[in-house]
Specification:
By secondary structure, this protein is α/β, with parallel strands linked by helices. The protein is built from 10 helices and 8 strands. It has helices at residues 13-22, 24-29, 54-81, 89-102, 104-115, 123-130, 132-144, 151-162, 196-203, 217-227, and strands spanning 2-9, 33-39, 42-49, 120-122, 168-172, 175-177, 208-212, 231-234. The protein has a 4-stranded mixed beta sheet. The chain has a 4-stranded mixed beta sheet with strand order 6-5-7-8. Helix 10 links the parallel strand 7 (208-212) and strand 8 (231-234).
Length: 239
């Protein structure tokens, strides 16, 4: 058996749970076991995996570590660093999700390249010592943001970010799926509150949205504002 262990500091339990849940299917298929436990000032997630499948599981775990950094850590950074007036709390959360999504794939790849060979990773340590250029990039973005936004400016900003994206996200019973019909839960790495569906859609990096069923009023409002005629309603189940 091979052991893969990940730790994170206080507040890191949510990210480790996200990783554990995201790789649950492959964990089960490979006969691996996952244990998530708090240990004093740190939280620890360990996988015991048959040697034959260890490289496959490790690659999946590294991918999700990179996602925790590119979404969760970036959110925590922007939540403090981006100081924008003129928006409601929901609109501010939408703005932060949009900023995260703008270069999510690039940030994730950068982080993945620096964790893919680590069998014992401290996520906060990797972020603080191996990803300083990434943090510097986020600092530049935060400093570039205007000090004040209004509703129409937010609409123009988010619409610009999604207009050239081709993939389609699917919403079924208020659950968001990517273009391969895989359930998306990246929003669990962000703060709570209204607009969870629209933020999940933005984090999917899609340019079109297909919806089955009713949506909360807030989510439907912003989906129509940002995606316009690229929002489609259907009666058919996707699953």
């Amino acid at each position: 058996m091979t052991e893969i262990c990940i730790t994170d500091g206080i507040g890191g339990f949510n990210g480790l749970k996200y990783i554990k849940d995201a790789v649950a299917e492959i964990t089960a298929k490979t006969g691996a076991e996952a244990r998530l436990t708090p240990q004093g000032a740190r939280n620890r997630l360990c996988f015991n995996c048959p040697e034959y499948y260890s490289d496959i599981l490790h690659a999946e775990v590294a991918d999700k570590i990179a996602e925790v950094i590119a979404v969760g850590y970036k959110y925590e950074y922007f939540k403090t660093a981006v100081k924008v007036a003129g928006l409601s709390e929901t609109e501010r959360e939408i703005l932060l999700a949009s900023l995260i999504a703008a270069d999510l794939n690039e940030d994730k790849k950068y982080a993945f390249d620096r964790v893919k060979h680590i069998k014992e990773a401290a996520i906060d340590g990797v972020f603080n010592f191996r990803l300083k250029p990434l943090k510097a990039k986020w600092k530049d973005i935060a400093e570039y943001m205007p000090s004040c936004f209004v509703g129409e400016e937010l609409k123009a900003f988010v619409s610009f970010l999604v207009e050239n994206k081709k993939k389609r996200a699917y919403i079924d019973d208020c659950k968001v799926y990517d273009n391969y019909y895989r359930r998306l839960k990246r929003c669990s790495l962000l703060g709570g509150g209204e607009g969870e569906i629209i933020r999940e859609v933005l984090l999917s990096n899609c340019g079109e949205v297909e919806i089955r069923g009713n949506l909360p009023e807030t989510d439907e409002k912003y989906l129509k504002e940002f995606f316009g005629d690229r929002v489609y309603f259907t009666q058919n189940s996707y699953l």
